[in-house]
Amino acid sequence: MVTLKKSLNLLAAVIFTASSVFSYAQTNAQSNEGNLSKAEQSIEETLEAVEDTEHVVAEKTQKEKVQDHITHHLADDYSFVFFSDEATGKNYGFPLPVILIDNGLKVFMSSEFDYGKKLVEKDGQTYKLYHSKIYKTDAEGTINYDDKHFVTNEKPLDFSITKNVASLMFTTILIIIMFTGLAKTYKNGPNNLPKGFSRALEPMVLYVRDEMAIPNIGKDKYKKFMPYLLSVFFLIFLLNVLGLTPLGFNVTGSISVTACLALFTFFFVHFSANKDYWKHMLWMPGVPVPMKIMLAPIEILGALIKPFSLMVRLFANITAGHSVVFGLIAIIFVMQQELTTGGATAVGFLLSTFLVFLEILVAFLQAFIFTMLSSLFIGMAVAEHDHEEAHH
Amino acid sequence: MEKLINDFSFGLFFWQFIILLVVVFVLGKFAWKPIVNALEAREAGITDALAAAENAKREMANLKADNEKLLAEARAERDALLKEAREIKEQMIADAKVEAEAHGEKLIAQAKAVIESEKAAAVIDLKNQVSSISIEIAERLLKDQLANKEAQSKLVEKMLDEVKLN
C-alpha cells in the first residue's frame, strides 16, 4: 500500500505542517511583540510629544503607519480601495453593500460610514466602523475596551459583501467562466481538444487527478471526490495568485475562509469514511484492549487536528507572505533617509520582486498541499484494508 | 490566538461556505464531472485505439503468414501436378511402345502365317502341276513310243528339256 511516493508525500506533509506551525508561531509572536512595542511606542510618543522632538515623532509615526497599513491590508474591509491619498484623506475605490441582521435585515452601502469617519444610525441603533469591523455603539459612537485592549462592544450578525467576499465572488465567477468553457469543448466528444486558454487548464486538471487524487484515493474511487478536489485546488490557487496582484486580495489569508475550507475537508472525509476507518479510529483492531482505549482519544484528536492544521497552514503561509511583501515595499518609505530615495527604492523593489516570485511558488504550493492533504485524508478514510482479515 | 478568534468573521465564513457549495456541486455538475468524464473517455479511447492498432498489426501479420502458406501450398500442388503429368506422359509413351511392339509382332506373325499358308498352297499347286505335267509327259511319251522308237526317245529328251525349262 505505502509506496515510496506516498511516503514522500507524507514526509512533505509533515514538514509543511511543522513549518506552518513555526511560521504561525513567529507571526503570533511578532504580532504580540508588535502589540507590546506599539503600546510602548504610544507611551513614548506621548512623552516625546510633550518634549516636542519633532523629528523622532515623525519617524515613529511613519513606522506605525507601515504597521497600520499591513494590518489593514490583512484585515477584511467594507469597501474596495485601490489607492488612497493621505494628504487629502481621500480614498479611491468603491463601496460595498453592508448586510446586517440585527432586529431585522439592514442593507446599506458602506459609503455611509465614509471609511469610519461617520456613524450610521438604522432603526434607532448606531453602528460604528472601527478598525475594519462594525460595532454596535451608543449614539455618540463610544468604543469600550477590555484590559487587553480588545473591543468589548457588541457586533451585529454581519453578512456584508465585504472586500474578501467580493473578491471571492469575483474569483468564483472567473472559475465558473474558465471551467464551463473547458467543459464546453468536450461537448462534441472527448477527442475535441480544448483551444486557447482552456488548453492551459486541462493539464492542471490532469495534474490534480494524476498527482493527487489517483495516487491517494485510488483509481476506482477518486472520481467521486474530483469535484471537491478540483474546486478547492483552483479556488485556493486562483485566490492566492490574485492576492499577489495589486487588486490586493487577501482571501486565503483570512482565518474564516481557511476554516471553512478545512471544515469542508473534514466533512468530506468523515461523511465518506467507511467502516474500517471508524473502526481504526474508535476501536483499533489488532492491539490489546487497554491500548484500544488509549488509542481512541488520540485518533479522535488526530482527526480533529488534521483539518485544524490545514486551516492554520494556509492562513499562516498567505498572511506571512503578504506581511513580508508589504514590509519590503515599505522599505522604500522607511529607509528613505538611510539609503537615499533611489537606494531605498532599489532595495525595496529588488527584495519585494524576489519575494513575489517566491510567493507565486507558495501560491501554487499551498493550493497543492491543501488539495494533496485533503485527498490523502479522503484516501485514508475510504481505503480498503487488505490486511484486515489478519486481525480477526 | 485571541486575535485570531477576534478576527474570525462569521459573515465571511458564511459566504465562503455558500460559494464552496456552489463551486463543488453546481460547477461539479456543469464542469468538473463533464471534464473528468471526458478526460477519462479520451484516455479510454486512446487505449482502445492503440489496442486496435496492435490487433490490426497482428492480424496483418497473420494474414501475411496465411498468404505465404497458401502460396507455398499452391506451388507444391503445381509441382505435384506437373510431376504427375510427366509420369503419366512417360507411362503413356511406355505403354504405347509396348502395345506397338505387341501389335507389330502380331502383324509379323500373321504375315508369316499367311506366307506359310501361301507357300504350302503353292507347293501343293506345284505338286499338282508337276504331277499333271508328268502325267502329260508320260501320256505323250507313251503316245510317241507307240509310233517311233527313235522319235520316242527324241521326244523324251525334248520333253525333258522343256520340263527343265519349265
Give a brief outline of the structure:
The complex is a heterodimer of chains A (392) and B (166). Chain A is mainly α and 392 residues long.
Number of domains of chain B: 1
Estimate the strand proportion of chain B: under 5%
Strand tally of chain B = 0
Order of helices and strands of chain B: HHH
Please mark out the parts of chain A with pLDDT under 50 across 5 or more consecutive residues, or reply none: 20-34, 47-57, 388-392
**Residue share in helices of chain B?**
over 70%
Largest sheet features of chain A: 3 strands, antiparallel
Biggest sheet strand order of chain A reads 4-3-8
What share of the residues of chain A does DSSP label as strand, in percent? 5-15%
Determine Rg of chain A (CA atoms, Å): 25 Å
List the helices and strands and how they pair.
The complex is a heterodimer of chains A (392) and B (166).
Chain A: H1 4-51, H2 54-74, E1 79-85, E2 90-95, E3 97-101, E4 105-109, E5 120-122, E6 125-130, E7 133-137, E8 157-158, H3 163-185, H4 198-217, H5 222-243, H6 255-272, H7 275-282, H8 289-334, H9 336-382, H10 388-391
Helix pairs in contact in A: 1-2, 1-8, 2-8, 3-4, 3-5, 4-5, 4-9, 5-9, 6-8, 6-9, 8-9
Chain B: H1 2-7, H2 10-147, H3 149-165
Helix pairs in contact in B: 2-3
